Amino acid sequence: MHKRMKIWLGVLCWILFGILLFNVLHKTSIIHSIDSVGFWLVKPVSQLKTKLLTELTFLGDPVTVGILTIGLMLLLWRHRRIADSVWYGMLQFIGYCLVILIKYSVIRPRPTSRLIAVGGYSFPSGHTFSTIILTFTLLAILVPKCKKKSQKILVILCGILWITIIMYSRVYLHAHYLTDVIGAFLLACGWWLLANSQRKTFFYWLQKPIKI
């Protein structure tokens, strides 16, 4: 994808996120409607389903994703892909700082009747954001290595499925509203696209001699 296209799509994602954020802050009726639909879509609730999704959502926990990211960074470093190691680590950890900043600015309470114990604020979903950035990172590394088109499609579909599972689990477990995971999706996609559009510029800036 060309740099200009990344910028336009990234800006579009963040504009949509801004619109959603505005409606969340003002608690508009459309937000209530979307969230109601979200809880309806994840029905029915069952003990087996709750147990399975509780286990799966743990893999999307920002702490778990952070550990996996560090492991991936070390692996890339070992294979002498130092620039990739630094870059993908920065995307994950700086990006999550953005999530925390928004969470504690919006301070949206989590849904009631939660099926798991969870604290903190609701908007946007940290699980969704960190999972998307890690999944995009893995796709960026793995897809170019796929020799067949069918392999590329399979890898991409697996990535989409995993992101969907984490988003679904957060709403099902009443840890988040549907608008929380949608917001995290838009924020993560925008961050990924805009940051990667400036990757060459960033590394050029790092290597540029400092003039005194």
UniProtKB/TrEMBL annotation:
<keyword id="KW-0812">Transmembrane</keyword>
<dbReference type="Pfam" id="PF01569">
    <property type="entry name" value="PAP2"/>
</dbReference>
<feature type="transmembrane region" description="Helical">
    <location>
        <begin position="153"/>
        <end position="171"/>
    </location>
</feature>
<feature type="transmembrane region" description="Helical">
    <location>
        <begin position="127"/>
        <end position="146"/>
    </location>
</feature>
<feature type="transmembrane region" description="Helical">
    <location>
        <begin position="86"/>
        <end position="107"/>
    </location>
</feature>
<keyword id="KW-1133">Transmembrane helix</keyword>
<feature type="transmembrane region" description="Helical">
    <location>
        <begin position="57"/>
        <end position="77"/>
    </location>
</feature>
<dbReference type="InterPro" id="IPR000326">
    <property type="entry name" value="PAP2/HPO"/>
</dbReference>
<keyword id="KW-0472">Membrane</keyword>
<feature type="transmembrane region" description="Helical">
    <location>
        <begin position="177"/>
        <end position="195"/>
    </location>
</feature>
<dbReference type="InterPro" id="IPR036938">
    <property type="entry name" value="PAP2/HPO_sf"/>
</dbReference>
<protein>
    <submittedName>
        <fullName>Phosphatase PAP2 family protein</fullName>
    </submittedName>
</protein>
<feature type="domain" description="Phosphatidic acid phosphatase type 2/haloperoxidase">
    <location>
        <begin position="88"/>
        <end position="196"/>
    </location>
</feature>
